Write the C-alpha cells for this entry.
Amino acid sequence: MGKFLRDTWLVFQRSMLLTLRNPTWVVVGLAQPLYYLLLFAPLLKKVRAPGMAGGDAAFAFFIPGLLAQLALFGTLFVGFGLIGELRDGVIERMRVTPVSRFALLLGRALRDVVTLVAQAVVLVVISLPFGLKVQFAPLLLVLALMVLLAVMGASVSYAAALILKSEDALAPLANGIAMPILLLSGVFLPMAAAPGWLQAVSRINPLRYGVDAARDLFAGHVSTAAVYEAVVILLALTVASVIWAARRFARSVA
Amino acid sequence: MIIETKALRKTFRSKRGTVEAVRGVDLAVAEGQVFGFLGPNGAGKTTTLRMLSTLLTPDGGEATVVGVDLRRNPGEVRRRIGYVGQNGGTWREATAREELVLQARLYGSSKAEAVRRAADSIEAFQLGAFADRKTTTYSGGQKRRLDIALGLVHGPRLVFLDEPTTGLDPQSRSHVWDEVRRLRSEGMTVFLTTHYLDEADALCDNIAIMDDGAIVVEGTSDELKRQVAGDVVTLGFGADGAETVPTARKLLDDASYLRKAEESGTDLRLYVEGGATAMPQILRELDGAGIVVESIELHRPSLDDVFLHQTGRSLRDEAA
C-alpha cells in the first residue's frame, strides 16, 4: 500500500508538472464555461420555465449547472494526452519498471481532479458578481460531486483512449457522446420543461443528477432527494468507471 | 546463465487470423557478454525481447531471467533488468535530469539517491550539455543516449536494447557502439536486437540469427561465418542478368570446387573452396559458353552470407 501511494504520488507529480508547463488546455477548458456565462446566461433572464424565475435568478439557475458541466467536459478529453504518451513510448518505459500499474492510471486521474478543482474555484469566484450566492459547506459538497464527475469523465476517457489508441477515433466518439449528455443535462433549461419522454431519457444521463444536486446545494438545500440521488448514483458510476478503466489499463498495459 | 529459455512461444491473434510470432526459442546467454539477435523485420526478435523484458506474456515455454522465473515472477524480473525500447520513451516537455530522477524513483530510490544517480548518469553518458533542456530539443543521437541512460539508471546487471541504432546517423551510431562496449567492460550483460550485420559483427560476443519466429543458427561471429565454409564469389551479370543467372548456375553446378550456389537477382553467389584458384576456372567456363560476366568479387563470408546460407534469402534485401 505504501508503495502504491508513493507510485501514485510520483506519477501525479510528473503529470502535474507537465500540465503546468503547458497550461493551454487548462485555460481552454475554463474558457468554454466562461463563454456560456458571459454570452449565454444573460439570455435566460427573460426566459420563463418551471424552476426558472427569470431576472437575476437566471444566473443562480445557470451557474451550478455550468460547474457540473465543467467537471465532466473538462475531463472527457484527457484521453488524448494518454494516446500521445502511448505513442511516445512513455507508458511502455514505465511498464518495464516495477511501478504499480494502477498508480499509472490513478496518478493521472488525480492530476485531472486537481486541475478541475482549480478551474472550478476560478469559475465560482468569477460567478460571484453575477449573483451566485455561496455557502461554504454546500460548496464543498458541490466540489465533491464535481470530483466524482471528473474521476468518471477521466476514467471513461482513458479507457476509450486505450481501446481506440488513436486521436482520430477518440475525437468523434468524445464529441458524439458529449452533445447528448449536455443537451439532456438540464444545464441550459430545466428538464422539468421537457416533454415526458425527454425527461425519462434524461434520467439515464449522469450529468443531470450532478446539475440538479448542484442547484439544490447552491440554494442552500443540503438534504434533498436530488442531492442524495446524485451522491449515490455518481458514486456508483464513478466506482464502476474506475474499475473499467483500471481493467482496461491492466489488460493493455500490464 | 543470465538468460535461459526453453521453447518460448508467442502467438498473436487478430481478425485476420493467428500469427506465430515466436515458435519455440531456446536461448542461453552467459553473464557479461553482448548477445545479439540478428534478423529481418518481423523475424520475431522484438517479440522475444518483449517477452524477456515482461512486456508480453509468453504463450508457452519457460524462461529464467537474472535468476528469476519470468512467468511466475515478472515483477521481480522488472526490478533486475533494464530495457530500452525501439523509440525510447520520454516526455517532450521534461528534461533529461527530471526523467532520470523520476526513473530512479520508480525503481525505489529515495529522492536524494535518485538525484545522485541522475547526476552520475548524466556524467557517464555525457548528457551534461543538454541535461536541463526539454527533450523535445534533442537531436536523435542525444535522445538515444538519454534513452539508454534511463534504462540503466537503477544499475541492472542485464539490459535489453531493442534496435539501439536504427534511424541514427553514423556518428551517433558509433557513439552508441562505444556505450555498449563500455557497459560490457563494466561487466554488464547487453542483449540487443539489430538488423544491421556490421553491428552484430562489431559488437556481439554471441549472435543468434532469427528468421520466421525461430532461431536459425547461433554462435560467435566467427563460428557462424565458418559454417559458410570457404570463400564467396559473387558474379554480377548486369542489368539484364536475371535470365543469365540460371544458365550460369547450371553450367557451374558440377564444378568440383563449388559447395553451394545462390541466385540473388542479377547476381550469382558461389560458395567455393579456394576462391583464388576457383575464380579463373569460373571465368574460363562462363567465357567458353559465351556468357558475359560484368563483375566478379571475392570475399570472406559475412553474416549476410550466413543468413543467406541458412534461409535462402538475403538479409540486405529484407532490411532495406
Notes: Chain A has a mean pLDDT of 89. Chain A has one domain: 2-253.
